[in-house]
């Protein structure tokens, strides 16, 4: 197949927050989805991405990759989800869709990433790409999208491999290790004083690459090292999240809750013993229970039934072990009311106790007071929504945010759930374990 990795065509836009050539999300979209032979695609869909500006949501070789830009919406503040969801509903209602495949992810899709906090200065975005390539099991497709006119044929080609970022140096972020441990100690005091039950504190580290960073270098390594995670790249934030905020598909909602973590040793027998310790740790089980209850409370207004396993399982990742629970729910139906979109559900679920704490308002207030930084889009929803409202949204964990003004600079993030039994030194060690995926993805060895 021939290459077509050009950005969106058309006259440069003067609309604030739009990339050159893209339009506000409210424009009419015309899309065409056709099947392709899965054998004609590379085993790794990330091989199709351009060096810059690509979009990705992949897991175990399946998912979506995209490039070009037809339209976007950019929002900030407390209404960021509402504004974006309203814009997408309007766009979807007027879209002209020719879909010859009709599986989740076909037709027009928008990739999104949202700021963690309502008061964040970071922009939240929904981006409609020009070309989307998807694979789901033995089904593969290509979608082309345009604004107002019939889209041309989609063409894809394996792109040249990314170049190494060279030597990577690291500097402390908002707080150095001692300062962050002090923040953890303050949080423990607040919890023991009864002001909250749990809070999730994050820290950042600044990385600088010798060569301009090609995001694909990071994405390929993350996907290879963490195939069970969702590897993502949306508008300058990238990572491999183990936590699925939600998948909404034909009335069924599923979610994976992670809370409670222990670092791996690299020795299989020792790690099995550590998994048993984690599964019976009162501190970690307490943290996990808060996260599951938080999710269920948020889902309850939208669902007619839920299914929650009695006990969590231990999720084994190369760097850490997590307590995990997979929750399933059925959306309530009302013939007169359209079901909520996956983006609306993501807005209702965010922030969960797994990334904020319990009670949420008190935890978020403490985060603002002691973290010393704007999280930006770290720990916010990231994923995609389809024209039918279905979609997948993860939590932007194990991630980094690129500096749009400096191709050598990016911020890495990690967070830990703090409860009454937390020890600052242990939490710092856990945060270092959670930074390891991004550090290794940047390395040149």
**Biggest sheet overview:** 13 strands, mixed
The protein's oligomeric status is: single chain
Average pLDDT level: 90
CATH second-level architecture of the domain at 168-215 and 242-442: 4-Layer Sandwich
**Radius of gyration, whole Å:** 21 Å
CATH superfamily of the domain at 168-215 and 242-442: Anthranilate synthase
Question: What is the count of DSSP helices, taking H or I runs of 4+ residues?
Answer: 8
CATH class of the domain at 168-215 and 242-442: Alpha Beta
**CATH topology (level 3) name of the domain at 168-215 and 242-442:** Anthranilate synthase
According to DSSP, the number of beta strands is 24
Verbal overview:
The chain is α+β, with helices and mostly antiparallel strands and 445 residues long. The chain has a domain at 168-215 and 242-442: Anthranilate synthase (4-Layer Sandwich), CATH 3.60.120. The chain contains eight helices and 24 strands. The protein has helices at 80-94, 177-192, 215-225, 268-279, 282-299, 342-349, 360-370, 424-442, and strands at 23-24, 29-36, 55-59, 62-67, 71-75, 96-99, 109-113, 124-128, 131-136, 139-147, 168-172, 198-209, 230-234, 237-241, 244-249, 252-263, 303-307, 313-316, 320-331, 357-358, 381-386, 391-395, 399-403, 406-418. Strands 2, 3, 4, 6, 9, 10, 11, 12, 13, 14, 20, 23 and 24 form a 13-stranded mixed β-sheet that branches. Strands 1, 5, 7, 8, 15, 16, 17, 18, 19, 21 and 22 form an eleven-stranded mixed β-sheet that branches. It is globular. It starts with 22 loop residues before the first strand and ends with a helix. Mean pLDDT is 90; it is low at 1-22.
